[in-house]
Amino acid sequence: MAPHPLVDKGTPSFTLLDANGESFKFPPEEGGKRIEKPIAVFFYPQSGTFGCTREACQFRDALAENEIFKRSDVQVIGISADPVEKQKSFVEKNRLSFPVLSDQDHIAHNTFQVGRGMLGLTDARTTFVIDSGGIIRGVLSATMNYSAHAKFVTKELEKIQESEGKTGAQQGEGAGQEQQARPPTPDNPDPSPEGDEMGRAVSTVCG
User: Looking at the domain covering 14-160, what would its CATH class be?
Assistant: First the structure.
């Protein structure tokens, strides 16, 4: 199967109503700026059905118990085409700890290019994992396998953490290389960082 066309691209933006009927802007913002942490957006067919309830509860439990979820501080967002009233009941009944959005007009579905599942009978169950830089890193479309999505997010978050860890290490190495010895000069016969410090000290004392 070909990868989703949005993989490795910047995340789309949209505004929907949440379960309380309030506008929710995506990507989420804090203080007028996009939050710089991973986001997991899961589109699901219908609130209140068995598979969708189990999926949402698995994400709820992962946020509370999964070390990868907690360490990455991932923002989870659920989206379906159900009306606000149904989303509110769904959230309250299952004690969901993350935003659940109403997309009756399929604004977000179309923006994220979410297709149809079960031979076109329902919206596809599709999950997107977005890194802290706003890039879509992974997509899973598995309408029948509701239990695969939280596990998929865990694996993608591990990849993101590993990638960001390597980037940080490379930046640290680059900074260390800047401190390596420079070629000696008549004014500085000891080009090491320690020699630089001694030279500055002597210069200060001798005026």
Answer: alpha beta
